[in-house]
């Protein structure tokens, strides 16, 4: 177990790895004191704000540039969480900032009751990045709203009610979207889950079935299996579980099946290859629509494709997106087929801010920047390198159970030991988390038990940044092992 490894690390240097250089000079902070900010946060902000505040000593962010953040004291951080996988092309990216400034000088706001060019230019551009027949766009303010509308649209189109999601899934925080969520910390004693059924998540590391060839990732699990190449017993078993859900938990006709191509909040969980392809077939046999939640995986983050669903060889009926769509500016979207979109005429939905001119200009510039800066390819190259190096730490440390992901959608699952695969204790997770922050790296946490470190940086990160993080993570793991 982990305790047996302690003596192996006593000679490791205590030096903190050197951060890669950055030519950008942030402005000097001259605002209110940290004490005053915390006082206001505790007194005037909703209590949930304090509940979700990261770190024992919070980070007081002042300014950002590309993959870097600076706090009010001038300390620089490598941002490997991107505001929860939201800053897609880089903090205050000059090209995107310029697009926002141009639009702000021309027109801040108007709604869909008028016809303005920015909305239509963006809808056409976004649709051009999706395969046929996904060509009809509706713009929203957030991923939660996009998922709400996807549920409504699926129910209107099919005439059915029930929706299936995975255990461990996260699809938003609105009253309806929390019904889609399958994680205890987002469940409250209020009626949000009507018509929503959770099926077993095909997690090939923590789940009942798994193996060494299951997933579309540069790094496979440590689990053994007897599957020959091209065959996957785990996939077959998880598909059988979905059949079981159909046989026991929902009517013979359903409205929709929701899936993140890679689970985000759930901890970068990946499914066996070809699972979604078979799942989509089963759903469509029962009258349901297949919905891909690309809020975290979209816009090139997975590296091999623009959209996460393309890595599974499927075409959904509805795609929802947000976060990286506008590099952090509040925006979301659903994209579907003309036939399904026509079903929305059975209802009326008006969104005051969806399709806002500034949001459209920013989102359009994001698409241009992903292409012009080669960020999808960079996600593939840097992400593959980073996962390969992190896998070496998995082999070195007993408490590192799994490294997984695609591109810059990465998870590192921490365990008590590799045999049990039980989650690492929260206090040890927090030790590592704090240590990384103190050495200048910001990452996230996720998973049902909070046992997975989430690495989802702006897609402009470099190989040097990746190597710096690996060195810092190695140091933090070593420090943790010394305390066990």
UniProtKB/TrEMBL annotation:
EC class of the enzyme, as a word: transferase
Keywords: Aminotransferase, Mitochondrion, Pyridoxal phosphate, Transferase, Transit peptide
Cofactor: pyridoxal 5'-phosphate
EC number: 2.6.1.18, 2.6.1.40, 2.6.1.44
Reactions listed under catalytic activity: N(omega)-methyl-L-arginine + glyoxylate = 5-(3-methylguanidino)-2-oxopentanoate + glycine; oxaloacetate + L-alanine = L-aspartate + pyruvate; N(omega),N('omega)-dimethyl-L-arginine + glyoxylate = 5-(3,3'-dimethylguanidino)-2-oxopentanoate + glycine; L-ornithine + pyruvate = 5-amino-2-oxopentanoate + L-alanine
Pfam families with a match to the protein in the record: Aminotran_3
Subcellular location: Mitochondrion
InterPro entries: Aminotrans_3, Aminotrans_3_PPA_site, PyrdxlP-dep_Trfase, PyrdxlP-dep_Trfase_major, PyrdxlP-dep_Trfase_small
GO annotation, biological process: glyoxylate catabolic process; L-alanine catabolic process, by transamination
Alphabetized GO MF terms: (R)-3-amino-2-methylpropionate-pyruvate transaminase activity; alanine-glyoxylate transaminase activity; beta-alanine:pyruvate transaminase activity; pyridoxal phosphate binding
GO cellular component terms listed in the entry, alphabetical order: mitochondrion
Chief site of localization: mitochondrion
Subunit relationships: Homotetramer.
Protein's job: Multifunctional aminotransferase with a broad substrate specificity. Catalyzes the conversion of glyoxylate to glycine using alanine as the amino donor. Catalyzes metabolism of not L- but the D-isomer of D-beta-aminoisobutyric acid to generate 2-methyl-3-oxopropanoate and alanine. Catalyzes the transfer of the amino group from beta-alanine to pyruvate to yield L-alanine and 3-oxopropanoate. Can metabolize NG-monomethyl-L-arginine (NMMA), asymmetric NG,NG-dimethyl-L-arginine (ADMA) and symmetric NG,N'G-dimethyl-L-arginine (SDMA).
Family listed: Belongs to the class-III pyridoxal-phosphate-dependent aminotransferase family.
Protein name (Swiss-Prot/TrEMBL): Alanine--glyoxylate aminotransferase 2, mitochondrial
